[in-house]
Design brief:
Helices cover 18% and strands 24% of the residues. By secondary structure, it is of the alpha/beta class. The protein has a seven-stranded mixed sheet with strand order 6-5-4-3-2-1-14. Strands 7-8-9-10-11-12-13 form a seven-stranded mixed sheet. Bound molecules: D-malate and manganese (II) ion.
């Protein structure tokens, strides 16, 4: 299995368009220790010819342009992208679908709930239904991406997309087909893609055990880092994300889970692990984590 990291930042990217905070200023100035990152997406292929894009980020056009494996090859209209798989309904997961209009055939795999969200929004009809196959996948039921490459969704703790929140109360953390993780299997190789996750329940811990590679939600370092930095009023928990540090954090949770390789993705622009000279980056790396960067490649 071949894997290319198209983007490793959370919604908004790094730098985020309206952020004048220290990290974003460094990224904008081209500081090599504060590398820019586009919004989270990963491309997966069995043979390096046909590719499946996990989450259609708002940066998908740039990500395709920056990735030779995804360029058209044959004839006047072509794409190596055979399918797109969605793990949620947030803007940073679905907005790139609009880039994929042009009546180019591919298959769109998502849960029932996320297809409902797309169906309810007529702008996504730019993906003409007679050309783009919308495939509804049940949680836990394997589906074939292509011969030899099998996928499966599983529920993880999360919340409704920001634009579907209603009322003034924080939305509850739910475990259903709104926010899902994705498992992809080829032979005896197994990868997990979990860009959003609010907690680490036992069944998720069990699923992670023995995996060859996991790409995991690293939105924030500290649950209150955006509040503390004066960047906004929301904690990580309020946004439906675990944080990396602390006793309930992702780094601690993974200490007892045997995984071959673990990669942090979906990093918010406030997260100090984005900065190669930060003590938080050193701490995450010492705990065995790879900090995701656009263009990274992995082979299983
Ligand atoms: C998230 O992951 O929390 C969302 O992408 C936030 C957003 O929609 O901006
Ligand atoms: Mn997001």
């Amino acid at each position: 299995m071949k894997i290319i990291m198209l983007g490793a930042a959370a919604g908004g990217g790094f730098p985020q368009w309206n952020s004048n905070a220290g990290g974003c200023r460094r990224a904008r100035s081209g500081d090599p220790l504060a590398k820019s990152r586009t919004q989270t997406s990963v491309a997966v292929s069995r043979d390096g010819e046909r590719w499946f894009v996990l989450n259609a980020s708002p940066d998908l056009r740039q990500q395709i342009n920056d990735t030779q494996a995804l360029h058209p090859r044959d004839g006047l209209r072509h794409t190596p992208i055979a399918g797109v798989v969605l793990t949620g309904g947030d803007v940073d997961v679905v907005a790139g679908l609009l880039t994929l209009r042009e009546r180019q055939p591919f298959t769109l795999h998502a849960s029932h709930r996320i297809h409902d969200v797309l169906d309810a929004n007529p702008i996504f009809e730019v993906l003409a239904r007679e050309v783009v196959t919308r495939s509804v996948e049940q949680l836990g039921v394997p589906f074939t991406l292509e011969l030899g490459l099998t996928a499966r969704f599983f529920a993880v703790p999360g919340k409704v997309p920001l634009y579907l929140e209603s009322g003034s109360e924080p939305p509850p953390i739910i475990i259903d087909d709104t926010t899902v993780g994705l498992e992809i299997v080829e032979g005896d190789k197994r990868m997990l893609f979990i860009p959003g996750c609010a907690a680490m329940p036992e069944d998720l811990r069990a699923r992670l055990a023995g995996v060859d590679i996991v790409f995991f939600d690293g939105t924030l370092w500290r649950d209150d880092e955006m509040v503390a930095a004066g960047l906004g009023g929301k904690t990580g928990q309020r946004m439906g994300h675990m944080s990396l540090s602390g006793p309930q954090g992702t780094i601690e949770a993974f200490r007892t889970v045997p995984v071959r390789r673990k990669v942090i993705i979906h990093m918010n622009n406030s997260n100090p692990v984005l900065l190669a000279d930060s003590p938080e980056r050193a701490e995450a790396e010492a705990a065995g984590w790879t900090i995701g960067e656009d263009g990274m490649e992995f082979t299983l």
